[in-house]
Each structure stands twice: as C-alpha cells, then as structure tokens.
Amino acid sequence: xxxxxxxxxxxxxxxxxxxxxxxxxxxxxxxxRAIIGDSIADDVVQEAWLSIYxxxxxxxxxxxxxxxxxxxxxxxxxxxxxxxxxxxSLEGLIQGMEPSMLERYDDTGRWSKPPTLWHEDSPDSLLSxxxxxxxxxxxxxNLNEQQRTALSxxxxxxxxxxxxxxxxxxxxxxxxxxxxxxxxRLFQHIDHFQETGQC
Length: 199
Known about the structure:
mainly alpha; 2 domains; 11 helices; elongated
C-alpha cells in the first residue's frame, strides 16, 4: 500500500498504522535526536505518533506524510525542550562565537584564511578513526538546537531547504546560515583534531 492508502486505513487498521510507523519511525527519531538529544528522543517520537494517530483525519496532503510527521516530531521535541527549560536562543550568536571562527571570514562572508588541509589520505580514512567520530558527535551535541537540527535534517536526512524551513520555522536564508555555521564549527573542530589529536 502507498502512503495515502495507509493513511486512509490506519484509523481502523492496526496493521496499516504499524506500516506507517515502521516506514517513518527512524526518520522521526533522527529529527528528535537532533533537537533534544538521545536521552528522550524515543519518548518524543512516541508522543508524536500519538498526535499523528489522533490527527490522521486532519492530514490534508498539502505536504508529504513524511514532512507532516517530521514537523509534528520537531514540534513535540521543541515543546519538550521548552518544558525542560533547555532552549537555546540564536540571539547574540555572533557575540558568542569563538574569535578564531570570526577571523576565518571577511566582511563579505568569504574565507579570509582558508582552512588547513587534512593530512589523512581520504575522508574515509578520517571517518574510520573512532576518536574523530567521538569528536564529531561531541561537537554536534554542543551546537545550538537550530544549527544541530538544520544540519541533521540536511546532511543526514537529505531534506530540502523548504522542508527544513517548515520544520524549524525560519526562512530559507536563515536555514542556509544555520547549516553554514554548523558546518563551520564542525570543520573547525575537525581541523583542530587533525592538528592536535584532541577534540
């Protein structure tokens, strides 16, 4: 069955609903983890599925079911984050940036000093290094909520800018900035790791 058939059948057919869950659970889990972290991401996704189940009759099909489900998941994760008083504001982001980050770019946003080259043979050999993976995960965890979410949705989930805009609730230009800054910070930590062996 395709999504529209599953959505129609799901309120009265447990098997159809299970198929929807199986199809989209992992995508929703990635979004929840990006926003709130691993600890309660499963709970967030379960709450999102409860909301989806109760609202299936309200799904109008203006977006794909995946986008709708991910948006509900993102909203639930943000609600949970607010509830736990852990929200991070983008206000003053530039003031909070490390000086080395600001020095990398000129006033036009172009590189003033290109990043150092990695000394490994290939990106695959870099990724095979578990310490580097730990550093990347640590860095991702330290990004603010919107940067982490935007980067995860774009690079891990492969969502379009429009879909990310709908989920995060910001303009396309802001999404580009969030992704750029997240990647910039990630690359800075990778460069530092390559130079020092420490995260």
